[in-house]
C-alpha cells in the first residue's frame, strides 16, 4: 500500500507546485510525460505537426488549470492521457468536419468511423504502455514475434500456465479499448475512460 501512495504523493505535490505557478514544475511534468502525450496525439491525428501542437496545448491546459486534476480520481499520468485523448479526438473531429464542409471527400459517417478507430488505437497503445512489464512482455512475444504460449513461457522462463495467465490478462486489458468505444462512442465533451491501467 505504501508503494502505491508514493506516485500519488508526487502527483499531489506536482499539482500544488503548478497551482503556485512554479515554472520548474511544468518543466518536470513535461520531461516526464511529453513522450506519452505526443505519442497518443500522433496515434489519433496521424500528423507530426498536429501532434506537436496538441502536445503544447495539453501542457498549456495543465498549466492554466492545475486544480482540474483530482488526485482522488487517479494518477496524474492518467489524467494527462485522458486530456490528450479528448483534445486529440476533438481536433480530429473538427478538422474532419471542416474538410467535409469545404467539400472534401467522404461522409460524416466515415469521419465518425475514423475518429472511433483512432480513439480505440490510442487507448490500446496507452493500455499496453501502462500494463505491468510481465504482461507487456508476454503480449509482445505473442504478437510481434508470433510465439505461442509454450514458446512465450520458455522465452520468459515461466511455466506454461503462467504464460497463459499473462497472455489472457493482457488481452483482457486490451479488449477494454474496443469495449469502451463500442459501448459509448465518445462525444466531444466526454473524457475517455482510461480506468486504472496506469
Which terms would index this structure?
RNA_pol_sigma70_r4_t2; RNA_pol_sigma_r3/r4-like; transcription regulation; 8 helices; 76% helix; mainly alpha; RNA_pol_sigma_r2; transcription
Overall description:
It comes from Streptomyces olivaceus. Helices cover 76% and strands 0% of the residues. It has helices at residues 2-19, 23-45, 48-64, 76-101, 108-130, 133-144, 149-156, 160-183. The chain is flat, with a radius of gyration of 19 Å.
Measured as a percent range, the helix fraction is: over 70%
Quote the average pLDDT.
85
Spatial shape: flat
Task: Determine Rg (CA atoms, Å).
Answer: 19 Å
Low-confidence stretches: 183-198
SSE ordering? HHHHHHHH
Structural class: mainly alpha
Largest sheet: none
Quantity of strands, as a count: 0
Q: For the terminal residues, how far apart are their CA atoms?
A: 16 Å
- Sheet-strand content, in percent, reads under 5%
Helix count equals 8
Amino acid at each position: 500500500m505504501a508503494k502505491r501512495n508514493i506516485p500519488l504523493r508526487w502527483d499531489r505535490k506536482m499539482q500544488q507546485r503548478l497551482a503556485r505557478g512554479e515554472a520548474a514544475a511544468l518543466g518536470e511534468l513535461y520531461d516526464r510525460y511529453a513522450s506519452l502525450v505526443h505519442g497518443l496525439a500522433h496515434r489519433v491525428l496521424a500528423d507530426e505537426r498536429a501532434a506537436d501542437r496538441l502536445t503544447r496545448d495539453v501542457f498549456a491546459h495543465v498549466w492554466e488549470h492545475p486544480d482540474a486534476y483530482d488526485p482522488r480520481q487517479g494518477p496524474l499520468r492518467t489524467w494527462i492521457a485522458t486530456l490528450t485523448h479528448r483534445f486529440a479526438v476533438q481536433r480530429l473531429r473538427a478538422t474532419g468536419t471542416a474538410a467535409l464542409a469545404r467539400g472534401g471527400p467522404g461522409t460524416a459517417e466515415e469521419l465518425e468511423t475514423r475518429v472511433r478507430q483512432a480513439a480505440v488505437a490510442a487507448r490500446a497503445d496507452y493500455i499496453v504502455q501502462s500494463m505491468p512489464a510481465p504482461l507487456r512482455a508476454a503480449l509482445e512475444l505473442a504478437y510481434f514475434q508470433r510465439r505461442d504460449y509454450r514458446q512465450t513461457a520458455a522465452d520468459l522462463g515461466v511455466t506454461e500456465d503462467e504464460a497463459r495467465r499473462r497472455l489472457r490478462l493482457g488481452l483482457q486489458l486490451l479488449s477494454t479499448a474496443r469495449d469502451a468505444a463500442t459501448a459509448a462512442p465518445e462525444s466531444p465533451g466526454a473524457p475517455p475512460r482510461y480506468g486504472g491501467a496506469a
